[in-house]
Amino acid sequence: MVKIKNFINGELVAPESNEYIDNYDPSTGTVYSLIPDSDERDVNFAVEAAKKAFRTWSVTPAPHRSKILLKISELIEKNLEALAKAETIDNGKPLWLAKSVDIPRASENFRFYGTGILHFASESHAMEDSALNYTLRTPIGVAGCISPWNLPLYLFTWKIVPAIAVGNTVVAKPSEITPMTAFLLAEICIEAGLPPGVLNIVHGYGHKVGSAITAHPDIPIISFTGGTKTGETIAKTTAPMFKKLSLELGGKNPNIVFADCDLYKAVRTSVRASFTNQGEICLCGSRIFIEKNIYEIFKEKFLKETEKMIVGDPFDDKNKLGAIVSKQHYDKILQYIHLAKEEGGMILKGGKSIHPEGRCSNGWFIEPAIIENLPFDCRTNQEEIFGPVVTLTPFETEEEVLLYANSTKYGLAALLFTENLNKAHRVAAKLQSGIVWVNCWLLRDLRTPFGGVKRSGMGREGGFEAFKFFTEEKNICIKF
Ligand code: TXE
């Protein structure tokens, strides 16, 4: 039974408590490894190591920092198979998805920010009456980075790499539900020669380790990705401490299909946007609004296309969906499907738990659920389910569908399908979300600002936005 270790001051160490938490393989419902049950003591050791490392790392020339980050990117690529296998066992997602998306994107995160840092500059402002302003952007210190279980290595690296690239050091906590690839990344960082203390990983529960990070007086900046509820808890801690805070939270994203869309593209893209990664991506389009006069034809084609979303053993490439990440989340999704029925929803397809033959018979699997006949403002259409569950709702006018789309407390992403350019621009501008995809989904340019509005978060990740978040700005004005 693998005992995962914390990564503190460049070493893989046991938790002070010497206690461990069971780590489950969701495809089989069995314990397959152990996670350090760390606490404040481990966080304190990690912060001391990070503070010490900051003294040199923050003044290391960017080309040198870049070289190490690019080395890590290469080593992730070299270890793709092992990392993808580990991610699939830990999260339950299909192996083909971990190999084609999660792990390559983790490598890309190191490459993207490892090269971006070579081009990150600042401004100067010359004043006519002989004075010059210039802006200094300097690293802040020890950054606290906390990440979720749905895209474990992908989101963990998306957070820690820009922080380190600009010269901060990091104390990070991956989700206790999917810790394995962060543990393997620690070994890669050692091999790449990342100086001790630049990255520290403390595993364990959010309410113990996560809260110790957010409350630590020597961690002036926090970057969090996870549930909106947890985001609120963190903000309550950091606000009175005046910590810099970035929150990437939940979503309940609308997908608007107009009658003048390319129907074939709209159907295929909508199925992907509904069920990829078992629907456990906060960017999934879980509320599909279809213009009335194509509602029936869209529904028929969408149901047909969803039949390809076979659920089963994530190591069998024929399966498009794997296991739900934890028993708790599996139960939560099934409860929401039950709620949908209570609210008057008609389950057109799926929604039942599945027990595949063989090794996965005790795993946590749910057949993709398609539900219609629900009002736009019922709980099923307002609350984040974060699973393979979508609703179909007809609409007649733009005003009506914008009311529906903007009716939730979230505002992360939105999709819309139309071949009418004016309509695309007009509707996109009125959608309350941080990201809008038109005739596509999850097409990502890492330079773009990434994040949500309302209760989907605060601040933006991506490109130079991330570098600006992880640095402090100072304006110096010289009169001559
Ligand atoms: O969140 P949790 P989950 C959202 C997604 C869904 C949720 C799923 O929409 O709502 O996140 O992730 C730690 N103090 N996004 O259930 O429970 C916890 O240990 C400090 C949005 O994991 O909030 C874990 O490491 N930390 C996102 C992390 O917080 C605490 C993309 C997240 O856990 C803590 C992915 C506490 N009190 C998921 N309690 C986006 N917008 O991109 C828990 N944690």
Compact description:
The chain has helices spanning 40-57, 62-78, 80-91, 95-116, 152-165, 180-192, 206-215, 228-238, 263-275, 295-306, 327-342, 379-382, 398-405, 421-430, 463-469, and strands at residues 2-3, 6-8, 11-13, 20-25, 30-36, 124-127, 131-139, 142-146, 169-173, 199-201, 221-225, 244-248, 253-257, 285-291, 346-349, 353-354, 365-366, 369-372, 389-395, 413-417, 435-438, 457-458, 471-479. With 480 residues, it is an alpha/beta fold. It has a 7-stranded mixed beta sheet, with helices on both faces.
Attribute tags:
6-stranded mixed sheet; 15 helices; alpha/beta; 7-stranded mixed sheet; 39% helix; 480 residues; single chain; binds ligand TXE; globular; Aldehyde Dehydrogenase, Chain A, domain 2; Aldehyde Dehydrogenase, Chain A, domain 1; 2 domains
